[in-house]
Amino acid sequence: MTADIDGAAGTASTLLSYLTPRCPSLFGPKAHFRSTPWLANGHFQTAWAAYGSINDAYPIVYERELLDLPDGGQVALDWTPSRPTPDTAAMPIFIVVTGLTGGSQEDYVRSLLTRLTLAHVADDEHGTHAPVCRGVVMNFRGCANTRITTPRLYCGAWTDDLRYVVSYIREQCPDAELGAAGFSLGSNVLVKYLGEEGEACPFKFAMSISNPFDFLAGSLALERGLLGRTIYSPQLCKNLQQVYLTHYDQLKLDPRLDAEKIMKAKTIREFDRYATSVLFGYDTVDDYYRDASSSRWITRVRVPLLCLNACDDPVTSIEGAPYDEIRINPFVIIATTSCGGHIGWFENMLRPRRWSDKPLSEFARAMFAVSERRRRMHIATHGLTSR
């Protein structure tokens, strides 16, 4: 089976043959990542990603829209450069799903959106890249300075919020082509959604960055390592506890939650045992981890999907990556680097910038170009038949 990405143009191109000349950062002699010398392993890359924020370098401005969900909850959609209007509703839309407790303010979101939604000078100095789409960030419930309106948060297995957001955007902009990217937890939610939707998926393409893929394997790997046990897992737990405390007035309404146990949790696994698995009705934390793992859904993905992971990611272990499943699915490509950390991939000596933005923006532009060609052919064909 081949992935027909250009059927409307009358040619049956495989995904790889189409992308190879259009994505030099993924294929060919320029397809390599050289890390910043003083960020030469996954721990340093991850630390810089967390504490070396360079938001001021990315001139992204958002327009916020609060979207009510069917269960009474609410998510914040941050549009850039602005929300669609009737005159601009057909412009392609790029949906971003963020990490565990992140949001639209994260520099990894802003840097990619800068490349796709704003005109900028290309890194190779071969000219200016024009914007190709409108961006919208889906912030999880209670994240990015929003409040929750029901005693429910979010988790890696919960795809209904994303599904509702996508259906809402399609209703508002029925002629807009849709692409998507997910980071960390958001990439797992996105890939699980892609697999659940299968042939009915409305996206033209998607990108998964630093995906944990297998929550159980990742949890075991995190607890196995010294830094995982003593630094990463406790910090992730503290981040989630802060979200819990911020929205305690709502969450205390769920009698199943034991606030004392939640606040005494020392690792992310303990938080998931006492909070996440309880909120979402799982029997055990491992039951939640098995159900949440997007690796189970890779074989059912039916849109072009690029997965980007670093082999030295100390947060989401690469050992859970579904290589065999990806090999038998022509719609999915996985690109790995030996170094890069968790949503890191910083290069350059004095002013580190994310190398990952290059292959991601190349892939997105190539995929949106296919959609634009289809649209033009549809218009041309319609014009011929209407004469």
TrEMBL record:
GO terms for molecular function: acetylesterase activity; monoacylglycerol lipase activity. Gene3D superfamilies: alpha/beta hydrolase (3.40.50.1820). The active site is at S184, D313, H342. One of its GO terms (biological process) is medium-chain fatty acid biosynthetic process. Keywords: Hydrolase, Serine esterase. Transmembrane segments: none annotated. PANTHER family: ABHYDROLASE DOMAIN-CONTAINING PROTEIN (PTHR10794), ALPHA_BETA HYDROLASE 1, ISOFORM A (PTHR10794:SF63). This is Alpha/Beta hydrolase protein. It comes from Syncephalis pseudoplumigaleata.
